[in-house]
Amino acid sequence: MATAPFIMPPQAPLNFNFTPDTLLEAVHTVLDDTRKLQDRIVATIQPEYATFDNAILPLIENENVNIGLRKHRKFHSSTSTSAGLREASIESEALESKFAIQTMMRQDLFKVIDAVHKRGERLDPESQLYLDQLHSSFVKNGLSLSSEKRDRFAEIKTEIQVLHAAYLKVLNSRRGIWLQPEELEGFPKERLSSLEPGKEENEGKVFLPFRKPHLELSLKFVKSGVTRRTIYTENDESCLENAPRFKETVLLRDEAARLLGYKNHAELRLEDKMMKTTKFVNDFLKNHREQLAELGEQSIAELSALKRKSLREEKLWDANDKEKTEFFIWDHSFYKDMIKVGKLSFDEKVFSEYFTLESSLEGMLSTFSSLFGIGFSEILKTDFDRFGPGHVLTWHDDVRVFTVWDDESNGGSFLGYLYLDLFPREQKYNHAGHFGLHPGFISPTGERICPSSVLVMNLTAPQPSKPTMLAHDEIRSMFHELGHAVHNLLSRTKYAFFHGTAVPRDFVEIPSIMLENWWWDPTIIKTLSLHYSYLSDDFLAAWKKDNPGMEQPGRNIDDELLASLVKTRHQNEALTSFRNIHIAMYDMAIHSPASRDELESMDLSVMWHQMLSDITMMKGTEALGEGWSGRHGNSRLGALMRGYDAGYYAYPLAKAYAQDLFTAAFEKDPMSREVGMKYRKIVLEPGANKDGMEILEEFLGRKPDLNARFKELGIAH
């Protein structure tokens, strides 16, 4: 990637110089200062004299700063190599959660806020929205309850926070399985060689970590169905101690919602979303599943036939062995890939040779630059010292930092910082994700404070003879998460509370899912492709060594391979969608029970596996006579403990709305600067200071179409 001359940004980057002690000192200082501010407001302002400016604005200005500090401290629990710092980060989050609960229980503070809310001052729209939501948050945290019920509500919130922290700690711990290398036949050799070798009782084995890239590769390429089953089921059981925590969390959520007068937790959670009712969500999910059912049945039939054919060819078929005759969930990726390679002639390995991490990243950033009128400039490690002694720019040596600017046509203003943490390491967050590390807002002096975003992934690290090469799904995922980062960087809100991706959960995925369409456009893919052998003489030599006597491939991906990729786009679309629909329907089922008794009687683990089989049309170990009990796939549902509770429907919903946005605005010309700038202004800049449905309707000029995705698949009924 070409580097531009260093330009000192007007706002310094964050300083990652925390130690466990200084991190905890910082959180205590912030909480003490905030408590003093709250005390001063209630001590000096009688409710009848309270106004937005004298009572609410000081709270906002304090929060503007503290949101960023909180995100910064919390981030270390997901990425730091220091066990002490991770523990301090988790402890700080617990302290802040406890303080937040205490704040929301302050009747004296609520009286002041309630008085301002009732006063009905004429405020700008963002200030009015903030006041409305602040008032609502106190009510939803029990301030309208009797003293006894309010105390119980506070206990519940504290218990939930403790359960969340313990659940996520297990999820982020070192998990995996020791296997003989021959059990992993089919696993990519270059990835196999990077697995940790065993010692002592594990001598001769390798450690397969239960991290997303390793799990996906093993289920996709390992030839042995028994090994795939072992990996799948062992991963399901790797967080066993979380199962009772999950049930207790769901019960506590339900109790809290009923204390507030809601029928269930889902009704409470949906009140502030685009989709306001459990009926709408459940009807949407049911219809979504029904629309895809026929495609799903066709896919199961095709994959089952392929499994039988393949086993017969390998002389492994046994009509009396259910392991062979049934189609299991751990078979899906393996036989789906077999169709891609065989029937559709798509070679993922050859494709990935045209998309190294470096060239793909450059192409992605270039795409965002062209669409939205921005530029990215990397801060080289040789320039880190420019920010002064004691300023630690990153939390790990692998991390890269970029400054982001408006281009000259948009005024050249500084927009913020983008961090990339792309390779796996122990105790790091083990999925792809975007972290809004610091929000933007307007300071009391009128200065715009710019945001910081982090892209976290777990890609295979480069080797001396080979760069990191990306599969198409990794490219799609990376572009998706960068889409969240760009949303955060381009947002322009008055208050940090509304900044960027702080939008409702059922809106937040729409912009990024829409952007995935770019990586199915043949022209864009071809333009951004570059075979790794052209990157350096060393890489060319390595390629020749691996491919003796063969002619060097063309610089760009050939049309035949490109056409085969495009054919894979909707391959097994239904079965892939069923996985998200399953989680979403399970999420709604456990969070919207008809009664408390019904919830208490639910076996959440059994329900998870029964719904998985019913909705996805794929079998689990129950088909091998192991029954439904004793399995706990719901013990590693991180999303439902990270804020997607009664909200996982956002993923299938976003697919529908995102396709409508793309088809209506970008399909004819995905690289249109005019449409891109309109999208930036209407969809990305408002953050959460406008209703999500209003944003979509303003951009489209009509109500969004939930059937757009089905129309694209040719199955709209």
UniProtKB/TrEMBL annotation:
PANTHER family linked to this entry: PROTEASE M3 THIMET OLIGOPEPTIDASE-RELATED (PTHR11804), SACCHAROLYSIN (PTHR11804:SF84)
Domain Peptidase M3A/M3B catalytic: 227-713
Protein name according to UniProt: Zincin
InterPro entries: MetalloPept_cat_dom_sf (IPR024079), Neurolysin/TOP_dom2 (IPR024077), Neurolysin/TOP_N (IPR024080), Pept_M3A_M3B (IPR045090), Pept_M3A_M3B_dom (IPR001567)
GO biological process, one term: proteolysis
GO molecular function, one term: metal ion binding
UniProt KW keywords: Hydrolase, Metal-binding, Metalloprotease, Protease, Zinc
Species this chain originates from: Coleophoma crateriformis
A GO CC term assigned to this protein in UniProt: mitochondrial intermembrane space
Co-factor binding comment: Binds 1 zinc ion.
